[in-house]
Amino acid sequence: MTPKLIDNGLRTTLLLGVILSLSAWGLASATAALSVAAGSVLALFNGASFRWTLQRLNAGQAHRRGALMSLSILKLGILFFLCWLLVVRLGLNPIGLVIGLSTFTLSIVVLGLIATTPASWQRGRDASASAWKEGG
Fold it and tell me: Are 40 and 105 in contact (CB under 8 A)?
């Protein structure tokens, strides 16, 4: 994954978070909308930390891979703690929080579907046909 692809994923995560929060507000309640929004914000921070780790690995700091993986485990613990805090202490809807947290994963699916539109299929067929003609 490249930082540009992750940036596209983060923008799509933000857009999906807004759409799903507004949908939760209209279909359920303000608490559900707040839960989805909080989950989306956590997903954005999670994606941004993933991008930061990827940049460090691509910048030639692979010799510090153990430290970066330790930071990833620490980040996961912080994420779990924040989810617990939001659900148990602040009373947010756990299903809405999970829907919000899934926006980063959904953004990857959306970007994959956009990349496999019929126009890109045609470009792929054209590239395959020209490669076949050049090789054979």
Answer: no
Using an 8 Å Cβ cutoff, are 71 and 63 in contact?
no
Site of tokens 């330790």: 70
Distances from the Cα of 93 to the Cαs of 49, 55, 85, 97, 99, in angstroms? 25, 34, 12, 6, 10
- Spatial neighbors of 30 by CB under 8 A, at least 6 apart, are none
* Length of the chain (residues): 136
Model confidence, pTM: 0.78
| CA separation for the pair 74, 92 (Å, rounded) | 23
Angle at which helices 103-115 and 94-101 cross, to 10° = 40
**Statement: residue 12 has pLDDT above 80:** yes
